[in-house]
Amino acid sequence: QQQVKQSPQSLIVQKGGISIINCAYENTAFDYFPWYQQFPGKGPALLIAIRPDVSEKKEGRFTISFNKSAKQFSLHIMDSQPGDSATYFCAASNNTDKLIFGTGTRLQVFP
Amino acid sequence: DAGVIQSPRHEVTEMGQEVTLRCKPISGHDYLFWYRQTMMRGLELLIYFNNNVPIDDSGMPEDRFSAKMPNASFSTLKIQPSEPRDSAVYFCASSLIPLVTGATHQPQHFGDGTRLSIL
Lengths: 111, 119
Fold this sequence. Notes:
heterodimer, A: mainly beta, 6-stranded mixed beta sheet, globular, B: mainly beta, 7-stranded mixed beta sheet, 4-stranded antiparallel beta sheet
């Protein structure tokens, strides 16, 4: 019940396209859903996060869509750029500072 | 402000040897986390500290692993004896206490990791 399931494992998108990564959870006590971005040789870094009281959060080209009833949330990257090529992790937390991470999605954006 | 600093960046050692990984969190951060990243298992939380006290070590794989935080600016993760299956990238992360800042959650700031290879 503590797992966060992430898909797809890898994603190839053409420059200018939309990248979509999905995550699902079981624990209804989760109250914080961040996305982290990791470049090769670096540690993950917070990209964007959402609380369950809103259905969508947008920051620039990055949007989180949240469906509380389905227990799913997704990251949309609009106008994907080669510089967005990285590994993306979704995560969840239940009112603690402990994050449960998804297994990661390797995104490659080709020019 | 400097980020989380981990050392060494790379470590190659033979099976059975003791391995010590080091972490300096961001100054003023109250939480410190140790993670292990592998292709098979992704990013796993091993242990985390709050104000230098271990809070949850349920992710530590076995007794060969131990972690300490003797003061607010330094932590170690030790593996003794090391085994080939311990090969992974180990990350340290730190964060602020949310209540202090008024937010419900604070981002975790990761170091660049230690790539550990056990031969």
